[in-house]
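Subject: Predicted fold for RNA polymerase sigma factor, 185 residues

User T.R. writes:
Posting the sequence so we have a shared reference for the thread.
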Amino acid sequence: MASALHQPPDETTTRLALAARAGDLVALDNFIRALHLDVRRYVTYLSADPQSADDLTQETFLRALKSLHRFEARSSARTWLLSIARRTVADHLRHQASRPRISDHDWQLAAEQAQPRNLPGFDDGIALTDLLDKLPTDRREVFVLTQLAGLPYAEAATHLGCPTGTIRSRVARARSTLANLVTAA
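User M.O. replies:
I've generated the C-alpha cells; pasting them so everyone works from the same file.
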C-alpha cells in the first residue's frame, strides 16, 4: 500500500482507472492497491467509526467498480473515488441514524476490546484520532484529505465544492487547533 509520502501521482492512478475501465485486470488491481489506504483513512475519519472502516472501504470500491464504465477522467481518479467514498459514508450514516444505537459506553468498550494493544504506534494512532475528533467537521475533513490522504488542495476543493482558499484556510486553522491541543496536553 502506498503511504501519503509515496503515493503514485494522480496521473498514474487516473491512467490505471482508464485502463481498468477498458478491461485491464492488472490495472484494476494496481488502481485498488494505489488508493486503498487513502479511501480507508478518509472513510474512517468521515464516519468516526473505525469498526466500520473496512466495510465502508469495500463498499466504496464496489460502487466504483460498478461505475467505472462512466469514469471519464474529468477529475483525477483519486478525486472521483473519494467522492464515491463520501457518498458511501453519508449513506451509511443515514442508515445508522434509522437504527437503534448501543450506548457510548458499550461502543467504547467493544472497540477497546477489539483492538490489539501491543502494536507499534497504536497509542500514537489513538492520540491522533482523539485530537482529530476535537476538530470541527469541516476542518477535520480537509485536514484528513490533504494532510493524511495527500490530496492536493485544488483537488480537495473540487471534491468538496469550495474554493481552494477555503481549503487552505481550514487546513491552517486545523493545524493551529491541533498544535494548541498538543501543547495543552
